[in-house]
Write a structure and sequence with these properties.
By secondary structure, the chain is of the alpha+beta class. The chain has helices at about 1-10, 40-45, 50-60; strands at about 20-25, 30-35, 70-75. The chain contains three helices and three strands.
Length: about 80
C-alpha cells in the first residue's frame, strides 16, 4: 500500500522529493502515514478533504484482497 500512496502523492505535489510514506503493519490493520511539504499540504487534502478521501478510497480498493483494514493518515509536522 505504501507504493500506491507514494505514487499518487508524488503526482499531486510540487515538491515530490519531500514526499515520505511510512507503513506499519499489525495482524489486523495496515497504517500508512503520508508526509508532504507544508506548501503541498492543501494539494494533498483538497477542498473539503475530497482528494484525501479519494486517496483513501483508491487504497481501500487496492487492498481489497488483503483481509486487513488499511488506514491512511496525512501527517502535518
Amino acid at each position: 500500500m505504501k507504493e500506491v500512496v507514494e505514487v499518487i502523492a508524488k503526482a499531486l505535489v510540487d515538491n515530490p522529493d519531500e514526499v515520505t510514506v511510512t507503513q506499519t503493519e499489525t495482524d489486523s490493520e495496515i497504517n500508512v502515514e503520508l508526509r508532504v511539504a507544508q506548501s503541498d499540504m492543501g494539494k494533498v487534502i483538497g477542498k473539503q478533504g475530497r482528494i484525501a478521501k479519494a486517496i483513501r478510497s483508491v487504497v481501500k480498493a487496492a487492498s481489497s484482497k488483503e483481509k486487513r483494514k488499511v488506514n491512511v493518515d496525512i501527517v502535518n509536522d
